[in-house]
Amino acid sequence: MRSHTARRTLRGVLGRQQCQFRRTYATEVQQPAATVSSEAEVGSARAYCLDLLRKYDTPSFLLQSYMPQKTRDAYLAIRAFNIEVARTADTTSTPTIGSMRLQFQRDAITKALAGTPPKQPIAILLAHAAEDLQRRTNGKSKFSKSWFHRIISTREQYLTNPPYPDLAAVESYAENTYSTLMYLTLQAMPMASLTADHVASHIGKATGITTILRGLPLLAFPGPANHHSNQGGMAGDVGATRQGSVMLPLDVMARHGVREEQVLREGAEAAGLRDAVFEVATRASDHLITAREMVKNLRAGQDAGHDFEHGHEEEHMDYAPSQSSTHAQEIQQAFPVYLSAVPTSLWLERLQKHDFDVFAPKLRVTDWRQPWKTWLAYNRSNF
C-alpha cells in the first residue's frame, strides 16, 4: 500500500507545478476531391473545426487563441483531426468498420497535403494551412505526412481495446498521439528544432498519460452521457468497443493488487486502485517536471540535461542545425504550443486533491481556473 508520505510527496510535486461529435459533413471514401478550395469553403471549414473544439475539446478551444495568427488554422485542423480519429471506435460498430474509417482518414490526409482535399471540412482547412505554410516559407517547410499517419495507426492499434502491458507502453501511446500532435503544431509555426520537439515530447507524454487516467471511469462504466465530454478530447479516447475495461498498465495493476472485475463492481473503492492511479499520475507529473527543468536550463544557456529519446527518428533527423536562433529563443517561439501543459497540470492537481480517486465527479467538469491560469502562464512564459 502507498504510504501517506508518498501521497504528500506527489502533492508537493504538484504544488510546484501549478491533464463526439455528431458529424454534420459526410466522410465517405467516395467524396470528390477539390483541387482548389474557395475562400467560402475555407471559412466554413474553419468555423466547423472551431465549433468542434468548442463542443468536445474545451482545453484546445481555449488554447487556440494563444497560437500565432499564422498558425491558428493549422492548429484548428490538427486538433479537429485528433477528435475525428479518436472518436472512431465510438462512432463505428465493429473494429473492421473502424479500420475502414481510419483508412479514409489516411487517404484524406494524403490528399490534403497534396493540395487536393476531399470535400470534408478538416481536410479542406488542413490543405489550406499546408499551402499557407509552404507559401510563408518559400517551400522550405511542410507538414510530415508520416506524423499524421502515426497518430492514425496508433489509434487503430487500440480499436480492439488491448491492454497496456506496462507504463512504457502507455508512454509510447502518448508519444505517438499527443506528443506527435505538438510536433505537427510546431511545424506550422514553422519550427524545425530538436530542442523544441524534446520539450514537446515530455509535455505530450504527460498529457497522453493523464488522458488515459481521465478516461478510466468512461471505460469502466460507459453510458450515453459519457460520449459527450468536452474534456480535452477525453471521450474520444474511449470507444464503444472498450466497455467494461480498466485501461491501467498491467504491471502497475499487478504491483498494487488491482483486479479488473473488482473495479467494475466497486469503482473507486476497489482495493489498490488509488495506489495504481497514484503511480501512473506520478509518471505524468515526472514528465511535466522534466519539461519545466529543461526550459529553465535552456533559458539559462545550459543544455537540456539529457538526450532526446526520439531524436534519432527520421522526422527529427531531417532538421538542419539553426544558425540564427539560440535554444532560449527557440523555446520562447515554441511556448504557445507548450501551453497544453496547463490543463494537464491542473487536472493532476485536482486528482491529488481528491486523494487519487479518479471517479470523483468534480474531475469530470471543466476547471474554471484554466482561462486564468493559461493567461498567466502565457504572460509569464512559464507553464
Automatic annotation (TrEMBL):
Lineage per the UniProt record: Eukaryota, Fungi, Dikarya, Ascomycota, Pezizomycotina
The family this protein is said to belong to: Belongs to the NDUFAF6 family.
Cellular localization per UniProt: Mitochondrion inner membrane
GO cellular component, one term: mitochondrial inner membrane
Highest rank taxon of the organism: Eukaryota
Main location: mitochondrion
GO process terms (BP): mitochondrial respiratory chain complex I assembly
Keywords: Membrane, Mitochondrion, Mitochondrion inner membrane, Transit peptide
Short name of any one Pfam family annotated for the protein: SQS_PSY
Name this polypeptide is given: Squalene/phytoene synthase
